[in-house]
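Good day; I would like, with your permission, to put a structural problem before you. What I wish to show you is a protein chain and, alongside it, a tokenised description of its three-dimensional fold. I would ask you to consider whether the tokens describe a fold that such a sequence might reasonably adopt. You will find the record immediately after this paragraph:
***
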Amino acid sequence: QVQLVESGGGLVQAGGSLRLSCAASLPTISNRVMGWFRQAPGKEREFVAGTSRSGGITEYLESVKGRFTISRDNAKNTLYLQMNSLKPEDTAVYYCAAARVEYGIPSRETRRYDYWGQGTQVTVSS
């Protein structure tokens, strides 16, 4: 069973940056697609970014392309999300997730992920 713990959230002004981390417990996450999702109050959880097992394939929500970068360090069992040029509409709880082992490419569908972290709050002030 994989346990995921996010960190790095906080309060930042518009235009600022944050780097989220997701530390995974053993066993390794290197055999799983990983993703970041977010959920704002009153809204459904949405896909933000995903990365293939090796990190060679990435996918992004259209509104974060060019501002956010997902990366992973399989040796450290850690997933990252670098968020630049933050906007108030990026305010949400951010979750990392590990996909089912049978999936090899990033997916936007929450049902394809079977392990989730507890979430970290990101608040962007205007």
About this structure: DSSP finds no helices and eleven strands in the chain.
